[in-house]
Amino acid sequence: MSVDDIDRVQEKLTRVRGEIGKRIVGQSDVVERLLVCILCDGNALLESNPGLGKTTLVRTVAEVTDLSFSRIQNTPDLMPSDITGTEIIRESAQGREFVFEKGPVFANLVLADEINRATPKTQAALLEAMQEKQVTAAGETYALPEPFFILATQNPIDQGGTYPLPEAQTDRFLMKILVDYPSLDEEFEIVDRYTGGQSAPAVEQVLSREELRAAQHYVREMPIADDIRNRTVQLVRSTRHADSIEYGASPRASMGLVLAAKARAFVSGRSHVSWEDVVAMAPPVLRHRILLDFRAEREGTTPDDAVHQLLDEV
Question: Which of 85, 161, 174, 236 could form a disulfide with 254 if both were Cys (CB 3.0 to 4.6 A apart)?
Fold first, then answer.
């Protein structure tokens, strides 16, 4: 990409946030992290209580960025074939033939609602899609469309009938994004905007798939100073020796944190990474990759507390 192309895409990303703001009130940090995750070609786990607009947010991101959208409502009786697709018998002029009918996972942006309600067998099918960008059905392998992202949600309350995600699967989410309640003024605006008789505000497609792919390529090529890269790796390595952490983050977290810092710099309109980018991205990239020591949990320490403490020490 030329300098002019980079400036144009960065300007469009600013417009993307503006278009999302037509439907989503507040949640600027959540929107930023979601865009960062997409620029990194990564998957995100969104955790919040019900009714905070996660589905509306993801659907709006798909519309603004010209990505095909699909939603999967996970339940305990959902089968892997319900997600990946299945072979069906189809009548034709030549007779009957088996045809693969693609499932909802064949979309650019897949919202997997309440992923922890799916059984481990179904979660494993999503795991292959997340990591390999392909699915296997009836002995055949099918490539998923590019770009491909899974944005999964889980509910921190009402955990009856849920299946905790295995560590191997949570580690494949680039970020765990926490969606909080809106402020009082934001809630006033939400009520006024959606109870006045008007339909949901229309949004304009701003970014094409080709521009998004080009932006992803540039993010990976963005330079990062050696001292910032070294501090970032040291931060991740320190999670493996901290007294408050029983299990630390893997090298995949080091790669993810460096890439997320680059993408945040790009979203912010810069062509270089600052330490502030690393500080901002460390909690969402690391919070689901560390397991606290039982004494730290007993004292009320959260994963974010542990990450911030390590940031102060690096």
Answer: 236
CA distance 110 to 104: 8
* Separation between Cα atoms, residue 46 and residue 112, nearest integer Å: 10
Q: Using CA atoms, how far apart are residues 85 and 130, in angstroms rounded to an integer?
A: 16
- The answer for residues whose C-beta is within 8 angstroms of residue 158's C-beta and 6 or more apart is none
Q: Are strands 85-92 and 134-137 parallel, antiparallel or unpaired?
A: unpaired
**pLDDT the model gives residue 157:** 58
- Coil, strand or helix at 244: coil
> Boundaries of CATH 1.10.8.80 in the chain?
222-314
Residue 271: which residues within 8 A CB-CB, separation 6 or more?
6, 222, 265
Q: Which residue, 31, 83, 82, 74, is CA-closest to 56?
A: 31
Q: Alpha-carbon distance 33 to 51, whole Å?
A: 20
Compute the distance between CA of residue 203 and CA of residue 264 in angstroms, rounded to an integer.
Answer: 23
**Which residue ranges of the chain lie beneath pLDDT 50?**
none
Contact 126, 118 (CB under 8 A): yes
CATH level 2 (architecture), domain 1-218: 3-Layer(aba) Sandwich (3.40)
| pLDDT attached to residue 191 | 87
Is-contact 289 245, C-beta < 8 A?
Answer: no
What is the pLDDT of the chain when averaged over all its residues? Answer: 85
In this structure, whether the domain defined by 222-314 belongs to CATH 1.10.8.80 is answered with yes
